[in-house]
Design brief:
Layout lengths: L2 E7 L3 H12 L6 E7 L4 E7 L2 H7 L10 E7 L14 E2 L5 E9 L2 H10 L10 H11 L4 H11 L2 E9 L6 E6 L4 E4 L3 E5 L11 E4 L4 E5 L4 E5 L4 E2 L4 E2 L15 H7 L1 H9 L3 E2 L2 E2 L8 H5 L3 E6 L1 H18 L3 E5 H4 L10 E7 L5 H12 L3 E6 L5 H5 L2 E4 L12 H20 L5 H22 L2 H9 L6 E6 L2 H17 L2 E6 L16 E6 L5 H12 L4 E7 L11 E5 L7 H19 L18
Parallel strand pairs: 18-19, 18-20, 20-21, 21-22, 23-24, 23-25, 25-26, 26-27
Antiparallel strand pairs: 1-4, 1-10, 2-3, 2-4, 5-6, 6-7, 7-8, 8-12, 9-10, 9-11, 11-15, 12-13, 13-14, 16-17
Helix pairs in contact: 3-4, 4-5, 7-13, 7-14, 9-13, 9-16, 14-18, 15-18, 16-18
Bound molecules: 5-amino-5-deoxy-1-O-phosphono-D-mannitol.
Amino acid sequence: MCGIVGYVGESQAAPILLEGLAKLEYRGYDSAGIAVYDGVQVYMKKAMGRLKVLSELTHDGELMPGTIGIGHTRWATHGAPSDTNAHPHFNKDESIVVVHNGIIENYLKLKKRLTEKGYEFVSETDTEVIAHLLDYYYKGDPLEAITKVMHRMEGSYALGILFSDHPAELYAVRKDSPLIVGHTKDGSIIASDVPAVLRYTRDVVFIQNEEIVRLTKENMEFYNIDEEPIKKETTHIEWDVNAAEKGGYEHFMLKEMYEQPKAILDTFSPRIKDGQIVIEELGMSDEEIKSIKKIMIVACGSAYHVGMTAKYVYEGLARIPVEVDLASEFRYRDPIIEEGTLLLIISQSGETADSLAALREAQEKGARVLGIVNVVGSSIAREADNVMYTWAGPEIAVATTKAYTAQLIAQYLLAMKFAHVRGLLDDMGLAGMIEDLKKLPAQVEMLLNNKNRIQRFANRYLGAKDIFFIGRGIDHAISLEGSLKMKEISYVHSEAYAAGEMKHGTISLIEEGTLVTAVLTQEALYKKMISNMVEVRTRGAFVMSVTNVDNTEAERASDYVIYIPKTNKYFTNSLAIIPLQLFGYYVAVGRGCDVDKPRNLAKSVTVE
Ligand code: M6R
């Protein structure tokens, strides 16, 4: 939930730290800080607010000399956003300094013990406990102190640590929070995520749980929690550096929406070979696919909405019963996992704490887990029994668009594969679906190019207090995502409802002029949806509908209609979501919201 960066080498550290933090700001942006050491003094600067406040305070780092340092961008968990609670944190004589991403669950207990031993705390953070605990155990050997502290801490952490009496060494540690390290041309670097280091190196080492790294200008030495040296493999990052830049777009979100045709293509094309769907990474034989009795899908936020759509696709196409769970619920409900269950964890970041915990819970109960993950080498990708990557590329905007879209494609591919293997989809049916899949990138592009019309419509609703999204079946799942996009970036209250449920309570909220967005892409449900639209319209609602190009009937019950091109009935989500993403985006832009970094949110939710 926060971002950390560290550097040791020949260059001035502060500008490198600030630049790295700028690439990680999506992970947290309520305050930031850096500490730099010049061999004599540790300079520390922290500032509440966006990173640019810190950059200005330090003259882009120029005021902080030194060739070793650590930095942090924060999303507050323990203690409100403030200069004092911002990281880094010192021990009592300011000889040890720490940045932390994660949560120390037993910090209150540790804080009490340390207070009894005379340590004084200046912040409300759990991180300060780490600095004092290191101080308590430090007898001149950083590695020894770090491992002792690791044995005492419960929770999750990625840490960057400096010891002033080891001026040429930077230490980094990880447990359940992401951390990568690499060599630059004149030093070594650590970070929470790849974009922060791409400018300096493409060869990175993913640190695993309970591993420690000692970095110097020339070397990276890796240790386990027993202080034994270990060997690590380097991964070459193929991404285009520009993928993590705005490239002329006003916001990352807009850019990423425009990358959806490519994300769709990149996710399906390597998996279609000679007219067949080939998903090698699934690691399942046809016999095993035939013996799947149930699919359980576990995820959070938009990834959960993908699961909601996927339920209709798996059940409709492959006739496999599907249960969809929010990871935060699944992990505590003592789920029953029967033999023959395939469990899917869907996650863009691959680091979402609840999804990761759900994965572990499922594995403990004997489930076979397939991760559908975007970030290569992330925790979920590593811990799942098998991983199917969505090839959306790096997603920076907090509100997901292209990763969501790629997750949907992965679900379609799996459902088509399962249906075909189980004899429910013949060769001709499969070929027809593949053809429809291939048309999606161009269709999405066409919808994106209609953005001016949606912007004009959005401008009429900048003052809206409530917006409702209704649909049935798959269209309800689309509505859930449309509603989330609206509320998370524009701060306009919105709710998604299964259209048939409105009259069981929610319809009482409809009054003159309330905007209701109706999604109707399922032919079999057109009539039912139109009745629901009439119900709200007669009570004063303004109805905007999103429907298939041939459903002109919808105009009868709508004030404004957006048409999507014809596609397979299971793929409509991939098209109907585009105008809803654009709608949320333009309402947020029109209201002057910080689209890419909405208040109170962070891109990857690595805490519970
Ligand atoms: O990285 P994940 O896909 O596991 O993240 C899940 C949710 O946190 C994420 O989808 C969140 O809801 C986004 N803000 C939605 O735009």
